[in-house]
């Protein structure tokens, strides 16, 4: 079977390409090779020569037609990610590219038997919490006035009591920023058009995915990238809020395995699946783990800043995917160790975190307590 991977030169895409080739699939890659993920127009050296490469944009009908020629399945992983308020770019790239994919499949009556679409844990917003008095709640983001006071906990909308985070299943979404909205809209396009035109489709809501090949330049890549860059340059990891935010982190190797699991299992058709790490960690725990791996004696810096639109806690229940026989196998320590080893070996490694932080401050994405 020949499989197309859009965004196949990127982080999750390239690891999915590797696994497809290992399993005996023929692979095509469509990628625009654009910043902030890539050096413009430069194909990464890690992309296998066996994968047929097409340099093009998912919004371009001609490029999509060339990429789809002869394929029977698609991993649609190309996406725009950032924290900046360029709202239209999220819609035009993520949602427009998804609509274009189905448009060209339908227009050409192409024999595509499965489409797997990359969605995100971000679709849940704050996700599921439990109030002792009022039970399960799906709260909106914390008010700006509360964050300005440095009060981080999520409170019950009925009684204002502090609530406890719960593992969030796929049943209810509440996207709270431009990226999350665009990813949920991708799901709606894909699943709606897939059902309408008989194209089996699966949406994968990835938790924070970590591992080798995460772009140094992409501010959205997450804390493993940021903390590692700073520590390798003898700078303290900068932790937002109080560092006690809970997250579940997924290995990119486990995510690639999950992608192939739903490709090969018809029970997944027209479903939505969380892909996570199965364990909760605070951001401070993660910072100290990376510090220890690098043999540094630098304490994290907690400067009283927060990212506007961030969730306090978010943990994905992976029970649905476990029921298909998949489970995470890579520990958080091994996730971090594989990235640290890879990053330290890169000749172009630089500390981009300061520049990214300055841009986010200028754009109002990173804010300081007491500055309203």
Number of helices: 11
SSE-based structural type: alpha/beta
* Radius of gyration based on Cα positions: 20 Å
Q: State the end-to-end distance.
A: 56 Å
Question: What is the annotated CATH architecture?
Answer: 3-Layer(aba) Sandwich
**Can you give the helix content as a percent range?**
25-40%
Average pLDDT over all residues: 94
Structure description:
It is a single chain. With 372 residues, the chain is an alpha/beta fold. It has a single domain, classed as Rossmann fold. The protein contains eleven helices and 16 strands. A seven-stranded parallel β-sheet has the order 3-2-1-4-5-9-13, with helices on both faces. The chain has a three-stranded antiparallel β-sheet with strand order 7-6-8, with no helix packed on it. Helix 1 crosses helix 7, helix 3 runs parallel beside helix 5 and helix 6 runs parallel beside helix 8. The termini are far apart. The mean pLDDT is 94.
What would the keywords be for this entry?
11 helices; Rossmann fold; alpha/beta; 372 residues; 3-stranded antiparallel beta sheet; globular; 16% strand; 7-stranded parallel beta sheet
List the helices and strands and how they pair.
Blueprint: E1 2-6, H1 11-22, E2 26-31, E3 52-55, H2 61-68, E4 73-76, H3 87-107, E5 114-120, E6 129-131, E7 135-137, H4 144-148, E8 164-165, H5 178-197, E9 201-206, E10 208-210, H6 223-232, E11 246-247, E12 249-251, H7 252-264, E13 272-275, E14 281-282, H8 283-293, E15 305-307, H9 319-322, H10 332-344, H11 353-362, E16 366-368
Parallel strand pairs: 1-2, 1-4, 2-3, 4-5, 5-9, 9-13, 10-12
Antiparallel strand pairs: 6-7, 6-8, 11-14, 15-16
């Amino acid at each position: 079977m020949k499989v197309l991977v859009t965004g196949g030169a990127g982080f999750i895409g390239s690891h999915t390409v590797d696994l497809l080739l290992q399993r005996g699939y023929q692979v095509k890659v469509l990628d625009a090779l654009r910043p902030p993920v890539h050096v413009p127009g430069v194909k990464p050296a890690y992309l296998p020569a066996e994968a047929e490469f097409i340099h093009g944009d998912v919004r371009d009908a001609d490029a999509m037609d060339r990429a789809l020629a002869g394929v029977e399945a698609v991993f649609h992983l190309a996406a725009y990610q950032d924290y900046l308020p360029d709202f239209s770019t999220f819609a035009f790239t993520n949602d427009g590219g998804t609509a274009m994919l189905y448009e060209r499949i339908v227009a050409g009556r192409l024999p595509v038997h499965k489409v797997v679409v990359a969605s995100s844990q971000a679709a849940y917003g704050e996700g599921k919490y439990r109030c002792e008095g009022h039970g399960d709640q799906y709260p909106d983001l914390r008010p700006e006035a509360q964050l300005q006071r440095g009060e981080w906990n999520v409170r019950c909308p009925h009684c204002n009591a502090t609530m406890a985070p719960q593992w969030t299943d796929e049943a209810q979404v509440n996207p709270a920023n431009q990226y999350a909205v665009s990813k949920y809209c991708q799901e709606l396009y894909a699943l709606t058009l897939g059902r309408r035109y008989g194209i089996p489709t699966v949406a994968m809501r990835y938790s924070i995915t970590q591992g080798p090949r995460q772009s140094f330049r992409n501010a959205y890549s997450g804390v493993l990238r940021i903390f590692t860059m700073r520590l390798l340059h003898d700078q303290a990891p900068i932790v937002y809020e109080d560092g006690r935010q809970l997250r579940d982190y997924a290995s990119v190797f486990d995510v690639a395995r999950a992608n192939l699991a739903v490709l090969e299992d018809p029970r997944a058709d027209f479903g939505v699946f969380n892909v996570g790490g199965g364990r909760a960690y605070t951001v401070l725990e993660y910072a100290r783990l990376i510090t220890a791996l690098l043999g540094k004696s630098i304490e994290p810096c907690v400067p009283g800043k927060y990212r506007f639109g961030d969730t306090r806690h978010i943990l994905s229940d992976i029970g649905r995917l476990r029921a298909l026989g998949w489970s995470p196998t890579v520990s958080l320590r091994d996730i971090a160790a594989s990235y640290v080893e890879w990053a330290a070996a890169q000749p172009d490694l630089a500390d981009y975190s300061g520049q990214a932080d300055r841009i986010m401050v200028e754009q109002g994405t990173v804010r300081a307590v007491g500055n309203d």
